[in-house]
């Protein structure tokens, strides 16, 4: 039987000696098949909010660990999340330039003694 130090001891030791560390919240495992396929645990699927046919990204870190992220939205889905113009009349480029000039002139007038 192996005896491991308690997590509090490990944390205090690493903090005292300023050792960079990462203690995962929860660890999950899966088995790699002969076709290099694996089943992603349900908890990971839920955490990443991925659906079948999602694109997964595997980043190999310098320490040999792998970071798994998921591309969950397409560009067209994300485009709708950006700011939209307010309802009403849209300004033309000429109108915007005129507004900038007017604001600059007004600011210049305020600065004059």
Strand proportion, as a percent range, falls in 5-15%
**Element string (H = helix, E = strand):** HHEEHH
Rg result: 27 Å
- How many β-strand stretches? 2
Neighbour order of strands in the largest sheet: 1-2
Task: Please characterize this protein's 3D structure.
It is a single chain. The protein is α+β, with helices and mostly antiparallel strands and 113 residues long. It has four helices and two strands, in the order ααββαα. It has helices spanning 7-16, 42-48, 75-79, 93-111; strands at residues 55-60, 66-71. The chain has a two-stranded antiparallel sheet. It is elongated and about 75 Å long.
List the helices and strands and how they pair.
Layout: H1 7-16, H2 42-48, E1 55-60, E2 66-71, H3 75-79, H4 93-111
Antiparallel strand pairs: 1-2
What's the short story on this structure?
The chain has 113 residues and is an alpha+beta fold. Helix content is 36%, strand content 11%. A hairpin with a 5-residue loop joins strand 1 (55-60) and strand 2 (66-71).
Characteristics of this structure?
elongated; 113 residues; alpha+beta; two-stranded antiparallel ribbon
